[in-house]
Design goal:
heterodimer; A: mainly beta; four-stranded antiparallel sheet; B: four-stranded antiparallel sheet
Amino acid sequence: AQTVTQSQPEMSVQEAETVTLSCTYDTSESDYYLFWYKQPPSRQMILVIRQEAYKQQNATENRFSVNFQKAAKSFSLKISDSQLGDAAMYFCAYRSYNQGGKLIFGQGTELSVKP
Amino acid sequence: EAQVTQNPRYLITVTGKKLTVTCSQNMNHEYMSWYRQDPGLGLRQIYYSMNVEVTDKGDVPEGYKVSRKEKRNFPLILESPSPNQTSLYFCASRVAGNSPLHFGNGTRLTVT
């Protein structure tokens, strides 16, 4: 069975600086998707970025980018120029191509942004 | 506006009193699912549905039931709630294929 691990329960960053959130996963599959979701205090689940495993190029969305290391099964999220609105819980998630499309989530990392 | 709507947002109930959390999506999505979120555990899938009248268990289905009689609705039923079902619940949907999940705004359930 696949697992997703976020080893940093809490992280803190100064406004305007860069922070990297870690995520590792375990799978025997070669094709899958990886996601980062943001959950602000409103508790909405907001998709931040996604990566298809077959793509070697790291995904980027404005200030958010990932470092996808398939062999190492690592999928970290980098937030550049951090803003106060980035403060939230961040979840890393894995999705197989099959198995009903279930998302497997990590435990979450609570990010705080200091002004 | 395309959305997944869950109701209620907050619910406090007592052990054993049957309840239903409703979920409706207006995007004509085939796939719908329910997750529960607990501190330190992330979100875990309870049940999912690939289409009308097709449902299957996720990772934590015990104590829950679902039905998918119409494409837009996917209610979560707790026939006899227990305190260990106190949690934050999310409904989500997507089209078939590799599109991402759209989540509802969550239902905070407390069972005393």
